[in-house]
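User: I'm new to structure prediction. If I give you an amino acid sequence, what do you actually give back? Let's try with this one:
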Amino acid sequence: MGASTSTATSKPAVTPRAKKPSRPEQASKPKEVGARELLRQALGLYVRGRYEEAAARLGPLVQQKRLADRADQIEALRTYGIALFLSGARPGSERAFRELLRLAPKERLDPDFVKSEVVRFFESVRRRFRRELDKVVRQSAPKRSAVVNLLPPWGQAQNGHEGKVWVLAIGFGVTAAVSIGTAAAWYGARNDDGTFNTSDARANGLKVTNLVAAGLFAGFYLYGVIDGLVYYFKNRRARLDGEHVSRQVKGLALAPNGFRVRF
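Assistant: Good question. You get back a string of structure tokens that encode the predicted 3D arrangement of the chain. For your 263 residues, that looks like this:
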């Protein structure tokens, strides 16, 4: 019997896959400088007298409205306008100041921290801006008259004070009724010859009540006139301010050394 030969099928050796060379790590992109950081840098340039560089940093911030905080927006516009003026770019400075006044109508430049020629220029821009705004308000606002305040409570109605309208209307009604009623009763207590008996307690009481009621009526009238005129001019000033902002928010300005730079 012949010897059987078994053929062993040898498995081919598995060649380990070579690891792919790792890709060179991509350099991380530098983080974009934040808007507030740019504002801080611009303020630093400004306080060092590098006005053109400060304006160049502030331009994109104010034109693209990249600052979210209103106090930062005011600071940027104020500094941008001053820097442009001191760089000789007056048209750009006026545009910046106008935008500042739209955002903060009561904004002022502090002459202790800003050159006098800049303050004078800013005030001239303010006056022109005020005249233009006044004209727009007069054309668009409903017609209101100061004379109406001489007839309370119509003045209060014009000013939108409904509660005061009712208070004055009731006050006028009650005091007028009491004054007229006591006057009629008092005159009815006259003697036949038209004189009054000074010892008549009832007649004297009617007279006092009549005088008190008349005084209260006059007091309601004076209050109505003064209140109407005060709020008429107060509301008129608020309309001239444009109602762009109801209040001026105070914020901490940024500076390289951490202190607030006032203007």
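You can read the tokens as a compact description of the fold. Here is one thing that stands out. The radius of gyration is 40 Å.
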